[in-house]
C-alpha cells in the first residue's frame, strides 16, 4: 500500500525534528567551569545551589545538564553546554574560566625482591617489620582507574584491625557489586564516576565500581596487594605475589571507561578521594602537555597536596621520543618505567640454522620441532607487514609462521590476525621506534617478540631465501637477568615542555612484564577473542611503575606520618640509584646506550634507602604558589589551580627553577650564568656534616657555596647556592648535557641530577 502525500509530509517533518534534536545533542560538549567562589551571595547556603542558579540564569541548561559540583579539588562544576552557552558563561563576572573537558588515557611476584623488600621491612635501619606493618595499616591508598575485581585474593584482609576511624569513604552499591560482600578491612572503598562518560558516550557500560578491563585491579594490587601464594599467569612468573605496602588499605575510584577517562569524572574522583581521607593517590593515566590551569589532574593534585596527600602519576608511554611526558606538575610524583631482573625467553630458529632469542608468554602446546614456511610482507596489501586486520592473504599464510612488524595495532591483536588467516605462529619484530626493548604478551598462538636488530636479520632472510622457514620454542621464566634495570623504551622522556625549568620524570620503577591481580571479566590480552580467564596477568607500561611508587610512598608515610608529600618524594628521588646490577650506568632499552635523567629522572627507586634519606628538600604550598606566579600565567590562571581568591602574586620566584626541587634543570639562554638556591632539612641524626660533590660536563663550571653543611639538630634547615656557568667560546645551541650535585657523609648520599640545555648562543 502506498503512502499518501500528507503522510509523506508528516514523516518528513518528523525526520527534520529528529535531525534537529540529534544536532542539538551532538552540539553539546562537557565543560568544566571555574567559579569565583568568594563571590557567592549570602542568600545561598551551599555553593552547589549558587552554581545551579547561576547556570540557569545565563543559559538554557536544564538541571540534569549539571554533571558535578566540585569544592575540595576545585571551585566550580562540570556541565553539558553548547558553544553559545559556554561563551555566555565566560562573560560572567563570577566565572574565572570555562574549559572544554579532556579525555585522558590509561598508560597501559618478583618486584618486592628486586626492590629489596622481600624480607618485609626488617632490613630498614631503625624500623622493625612489626612496627612498620602496624603503622601502614593506618595508611590509605586511593587508586583512580578502571575499578576493582574485589574477589581477587590480593584484596583479602587476614588479621587486619578495624578501618581507621577518620575514613569517610564507602563502597557503592551496583547490580554486580554488593558492599557487604565485596568490601572488607583491606578494600575499604569502591566508587564510580561516569557522568562525563555517560554524557559524551551514551553510557553503554554497567554503572559499577567493578573492573571490566583489568587495568585497575592490576594497579591497585601492585600498590597494596596482600600476599598470594602460587600466583602466576598461565604458568609464567610463578611465586608469591604481593603489593608494595601489603598492610595498607585501598580505596578504588572508577573514572575510566571503554572510551577513556574523562577529565570531569577524574576531577570528581579526586574530589571524593580527598574528602574520603586517602593518604596517597595513584593515577596510571594521563594526557598531553598543557598549561597547568588546563590540566585536570594537575589541578586536582594541587588540592590533594594542600591536604597532605601525595599524588603519584605515570609519566606516559610516549617513549623513546623526547618531550613526551605527561603529569609534569612539580607537586606530582612523575614515574617512568624500567625492567625487572626477570624474563620470559622464547626462541625463533630459522631454516638456515640461525637461532635468535626473544620473549613470549604463550602458554599453549607450541609448534613442535618441525620447520614451517616463513612469510613476510607478501601479497598485495600494503599493511601486511604490520599484520593489521584484513591485511593477510589466507592462501599465502596458511600453515606458516608470519613475521609482523610491531606498531600501529596492539601486539597481541596481530597474533589474532595471523591466527584467523590460518597462520600457525608469529614473530613480532621491533622497528627502529622500539629498538631493542622486548615486552612479553600472552599470545593466542605461538609467538615470539624480537628486537630491531634481530628483526632486521629475519626480515632479510625472509626476503632473500628461496624457501624461508622457521620454528618457535618457549623457555618459561628466568630470573637474575643482567643487566637490570634497563629504562623501558616506551617510557616517556623529557624535557618537560610545560615548565622546562623542572626536570622530569622524577624516578623510574618496575614497569615491564609485571605480574599482578586481574579482572576475571576479561582475558589476559584484553581482546574480545580471548576467552581465557586468569586471576593474575603480566602487563607493561608506566601504568605498572606508578603504583609501585604509590605503594612505596605509603610505606614512607607509615614510617614518617608527619612528612609532607614533597618530603616523601624527595626521599625517593635523592636515594634513587643510577647503576644497574652489573655496576654499569643505567642503560636505555632502545639501543642499549647509557640512559640520562630525561629518561630515568633521579634514577631507579631504592625503598630501603628512601626510608632513611638523611636530608630532604621540602616544599610548602606557598612555595608552589610562588612557582606558579613566576610562570607566564595571569592571576586568574593561578587562582584556577590554587583555589584561593586572595592571591596577588606579590611574592614570586625570579625564575621557576628557584623552587626547592630535588633536581635541577638549567636553561642557558641569553645569559651564560644561572644561580639557584636550595634548602635541605635534616631528617637524619643530630650533629650531621655533609660535603658536596659535583659532576658536570666539561663546558660547564659548577660552584656550590658553602661546600659543607652542618646540621646540629634533627629538623635543622641549611641553604646552599649553586652557580652554573657555561664556558665562553663553546657553541652549544640546541644541545643538552647532564651532571649531578650530591651531599654525602658516611651514612647518606643525597643526590640530585642536573640537566643542562642551551637555548641561545
Structure write-up:
With 761 residues, the chain is α/β, with parallel strands linked by helices. Helices cover 24% and strands 26% of the residues. The chain has 19 helices and 39 strands. The protein has a seven-stranded parallel beta sheet, with helices on both faces. A seven-stranded mixed beta sheet has the order 19-18-24-20-21-22-23, sandwiched between helices. Strands 32-39-38-34-36 form a five-stranded mixed beta sheet, with no helix packed on it. Helix 5 crosses helix 14 and helix 8 runs parallel beside helix 14 (542-559). It is globular, with a radius of gyration of 27 Å. 54% of the residues are buried. The model is unreliable at 1-26 and 119-125 (pLDDT under 50). It is found in: Secreted. Residues 137-582 form the Peptidase S8/S53 domain. It comes from Forsythia ovata.
